[in-house]
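tool=predict chain=A
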Amino acid sequence: MLVAVSGGPDSVVLLHVLKRLQPVLDLDIIVFHLNHKLRGLEADADARFVDEFAAGMGLKAMLVECDVRLLMERERLSLEEAAREARYREMERLAAELDIDKIALGHHADDQVETFLMRLLRGTGLEGLGSIKPVRDGYVRPLIDETKSEILHYIEEYSLEYKVDASNRDESILRNRIRHKLMPLLGEYNPSFQETLLNTIEIVSEDQSFIEEIVAGVFSRHAQREPGLIRLPIVEITNQPLAIERRLVRLAIRSVKGDLRGIEFKHVEAIISGLRHGSERMEINLPGQIIARVEYEQLVIGERQLFEALQFESIELKVPGATRIDALGVEIEAELAEPAGLVFGRNGDVAYLDAAVAGSGLKLRVRRPGDSFIPFGMTGEKKLQDLFVDKKISKRERNRVPIIESDGKIAWVAGFRIDDSFRVTERTKEVLVLRLLRI
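tool=predict ok
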């Protein structure tokens, strides 16, 4: 278990409690401390204190440094957001390196109240107002039900030393203003307000859990998953109550992005507005290189790179042989066969071409503006774009359809139709059989 220790009273008590429980729970404890490089010599002294405190218990401490101001500027975060982001990134990185599946944090009941008030002031929904979970996504918070006064009493009882972070008094930070100004003021109106808010948080959390179960059920029934992408039928979203509708959109974004950082109310509302107004042209850029768009009565949320046209040179096919194109996720198998004995099917993933007409030097590419061909059985040309529209192929998928060409002319739109001029006739002496395999 990786235990995050800043040196303050909460994390000192956390480590002391876990060390006492170590024989009972059979814990393998490693201490983690992050120096944010914000307080100079004071921060260095905190790191030394944590190292010595851990050593006094016979534990190993991993002391990590991160330039939080640089992270703040690079990712346009507030100082508080950057510090939090740095802590979680470094903890998860170290846990992955050491193959640790649990990270212990020192959050307590007062943190619950502060977080509730902070999110309420910034604006949030039930999910944001719910409790900090004691166990979630590999993080455990053993002190989450303990108050600050109980933690300080424990410190006194066991005569534990700890460090006081001067930045905790910096009232330019919202959490500190809530702690030192708002909470004492609320106490004047209701001396038991903290207990009252903790009860409210518990109620909100239970309500949110119930709604999450409903949303998860709808999502599991209708979501179609692909690597880096989620599809949801629009009708299954818009037929839901607005509360469920919003959560479905958020869950789809989280499923692709991995989190909801940077996703605001305005993003979700813009998507819902587009769906409700039936906009087939909707395309919304979301934070984290994610795109939300409408494709043939489906909401599609995916990584930006999946929607961009592929850029690569034509690839010569191996005839006979197999040509694998990882960028498209396909492999084209080619073989030469005598016409006699061949059973010609109507599978769009198999093409039968007159080998003499196809010639040598067949190439594979993706679509280009103005592409057209004569579909098998027809006499006139058809634009490739019109074929895709007829088949309801989304713009994203059109970019990844393999096009087989001979001397600059389309011979086969792989997965769909061959060009009629390459068809097998009674004069064909040798057949080129091409098979499209999805990998």
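The domain at 2-194 is CATH 3.40.50.620 (Rossmann fold). Residues 193-222 form the longest helix (30 residues).
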